Amino acid sequence: QVTLVESGGGLVQPGNSLRLSCAASTSIFRFYIMGWYRQAPGKERELVASLNSGGRTNYADSVQGRFTISRDNAQNTVYLQMNNMKPEDTAVYYCNAQAWSKESYWGQGTQVTVSS
Q: Could you write out the DSSP letters of every residue in 28-96?
């Protein structure tokens, strides 16, 4: 059974930074793509950033230039560095991993609130 555990969420003021972590219970080489999604109240879950096994990244237009996704293979962890945060970034952030075997896994989510 694969588990993903997110951490690093919290309350941050506009313009400040936060880093989320997603620790996998297995080698992340098992996944061909990992990503961060978010869901704000009353809205659908949306892709924020993804990173495939080849190192290619993809970002939502709303976070391009402010957020960076990265990974530490030795720690089996994927990160989301969020800079210059805005109130509209407030949401529950979820980690997702898609295995080469086509299985998809989700973390439990971590709340991020951007407010002064």
A: GGGEEEEEEEEE-TTS--EEEEEEETTS-EEE-TTTTTTEEEEEEGGGTEEEEEE-S--GGG-EEEEEE
- In whole angstroms, what is the distance from residue 19 CA to residue 8 CA? 6
Site of tokens 């109130």: 87
User: What does the alpha-carbon distance between residue 38 and residue 52 come to, in Å, rounded to a whole number?
Assistant: 18
Q: What angle do CA 39, 79, 28 make, to 5 degrees?
A: 105
> Whole-angstrom Cα distance, residue 58 to residue 41?
24
Summary mean pLDDT of the chain: 96
The pLDDT of residue 1 is above 90: no
Give the tens place of pLDDT for each residue, 66-97.
999 999 999 999 999 999 999 999 999 999 99
